[in-house]
Amino acid sequence: MNRATDLAGRRITMGNTSLSGGFRAVHLADGTECEQVTADGMVLIDDVRYQAGEAHMGGIVVQPEGDPPG
């Protein structure tokens, strides 16, 4: 089950933009880009703030707020 949401509480999914990397978040309800998470990486999981972003060798990493991704 995907528990990640943007700061407004809308459920999202995250992924790389291409095989060469990049980071993008999308709203699950309608498939539109979640500009807030794509821009700043801040997500909520079970109402706790985390920082999400592109991992060093590809993929997505989610860490407690304040820890740099990767």
For the largest beta-sheet, the strand count, sense and barrel status come to: 4 strands, antiparallel
How much is the radius of gyration in Å? Answer: 11 Å
Which of globular, elongated, flat, extended, rod-shaped describes the shape?
Answer: globular
- Average pLDDT figure: 91
Order of helices and strands: EEEHEEE
- Spatially, the strands of the biggest sheet line up as 1-4-5-6
**Structural class per helix/strand content?**
mainly beta
The level of helicity is under 10%
Distance between the termini: 23 Å
Task: Offer a quick outline of the entry.
By secondary structure, the chain is mainly β. The chain is 9% helix and 37% strand.
Present the secondary structure layout.
Elements: E1 4-5, E2 12-15, E3 24-27, H1 35-40, E4 42-45, E5 48-54, E6 60-64
Antiparallel strand pairs: 1-4, 2-3, 4-5, 5-6
Plain-language structure description:
- This protein has 70 residues and is mostly beta strands.
- The chain contains 1 helix and 6 strands.
- The protein has one helix at residues 35-40, and strands at residues 4-5, 12-15, 24-27, 42-45, 48-54, 60-64.
- The strands form 2 sheets. A 4-stranded antiparallel β-sheet has the order 1-4-5-6. It has a two-stranded antiparallel sheet with strand order 2-3.
- A hairpin with a 2-residue loop joins strand 4 and strand 5 (48-54).
- The longest helix is centred in the middle third of the chain and has 6 residues, at 35-40.
- It is globular, with a radius of gyration of 11 Å.
- The mean pLDDT is 91.
